[in-house]
Amino acid sequence: MTRYSATTPSRNAIMMFVGMMLVALNLRPALTSVGPVLKAIGDSLSLSSIGQGVLTTLPVLLLGLAAPMAPYAARRLGMERTVLAALIILALAMVIRPFLGVSGLFLGTAVAGGCIGIMSVLLPGIVKRDFPESASLMTGLYTAVLCTGAAVAAGATEPLRIAFSNEWQPALAFWTVPAIIAAVAWWLQLDGKQVPATPRAPKTSLFRDGLAWQVAFYMGLQSSLAYTVFGWLPTILQDRGIEPVTAGLALSVSILVQVPTAIAAPWIASHMRDQRAMVVLVMLATLTGITGSIYAPIEGVWFWVVILGLGQGGSFSIALTLLAVRARDTDTAARLSGMAQSVGYTMAALGPLLVGVLHERFESWNIAGLFLGLIALGAILAGLGAGRQLYVLEPEAP
Fold it and tell me: What's the CA gap between 31 and 127, in Å, rounded?
């Protein structure tokens, strides 16, 4: 496939850019649309807090489990056709999952998470390959659009439920529309000449590298907080007395304000000696926002969700940055991305599930809040190791 220059964009480059942004727009709505209507789903299907926790956990677990499948699929189909297939399956999963009862809801949510996991692994490689002269800019734009999609789904799903006569099923199914649009746009930019990637010779396993594990742990722990917020923040706020629409809007605002720090945090960190100070800063902001949302007087909730969003935007973008700067070359960065996302998202799936278990057991969010605080502290420790100016698969200096 033709390499695209940032200075002389062709029609194909423009179409690829549009396609990539539309794909990025679909990487979170399947996840963030559930939280605002989780109580309605639970009441309708008689799901306990543990069952609701499993529902919020499934897509995150599949993000990790499906990540290793991405390179195998890309070798057989090519990266572009693999993304197209994932988009089509994602659209099908989202349109049918609300209408097939409990089993269909869980299965459709799991399939959607797997499709998102595959696309999440492949898109960074496509950016580096086709826009090598503006990879940082493209990554920033891609992250900003991803956050925008997450925020819109979080804020609009509950109003959609009300618009659809208080039915949550069509409100969830609505998010298949942007997936279909993205699939059409992605299909239109395919040139029909793509070939599967050539299999590579076996390389030294990153699973034997301590630094790679620190990157994976940081990715997983900060993601665990993010997906817990996606799944449970509206329910937490509703239990504290906030109306469902306002609770969904609070999550939407928290996600939307991630955009500036998602772009700024890596840029600021690039002017520092390494990423450790930025890791501590964004994780402390995340911890502060979570703590305030659960324990502080509810009148100040908007302040706390903004602090939470600023922290989580920075923590996510720093995690993506570590995948690139901890590797010497593009191939190693791609392998580190696959390993860290596979391990990290599988680990992250435990967060929403255990929060549901703790809430069910203690009938309060207080213990769950302490648990989330421990996750944040663990992310800081992992980030202090991952943020050092070192490279994977290279021995540390004595």
Answer: 24
| Tokens 């999550």, residue located | 251
- 10's CB contacts (< 8 A; 6+ apart) are 2, 4
Closest CA to 258 of 312, 303, 302, 318: 312
Structure tokens at 397: 């200096």
Q: What CATH number does residue 88 fall under?
A: 1.20.1250.20
- Say if residues 220 and 121 touch (Cβ distance below 8 Å): no
Burial, 161: exposed, middle or buried (Cβ in 10 Å; 0-12, 13-18, 19+)? buried
Two tokens at 357? 């278990």
Asked whether residue 187 is assigned to any structural domain, the reply reads yes
User: Which domain, by its residues, includes 29?
Assistant: 11-386
- For 57, phi and psi rounded to 5 degrees? -85, -35
Residue 369 in any domain: the answer is yes
Q: Count other C-beta atoms under 10 Å from residue 338's C-beta.
A: 22
Q: Name the one residue in this structure whose structure tokens are 């901890």.
A: 326
**What confidence tens digit (pLDDT) does each residue in 186-237 have?**
998 886 545 555 555 556 788 899 999 999 999 999 999 998 998 889 999 9
Question: Which residues are CB-neighbours of 348 under 8 A, at least 6 positions away?
Answer: 60, 63, 64, 220, 221, 223, 224, 226, 227
Is the model's pTM score more than 0.90? no
Q: Which residue has the tokens 């220059």?
A: 5
272: left (phi over 0), alpha (psi -120 to 50) or beta: beta
Per the structure, how many domains does the chain have? 1
Structure token pair of residue 388: 């050092």
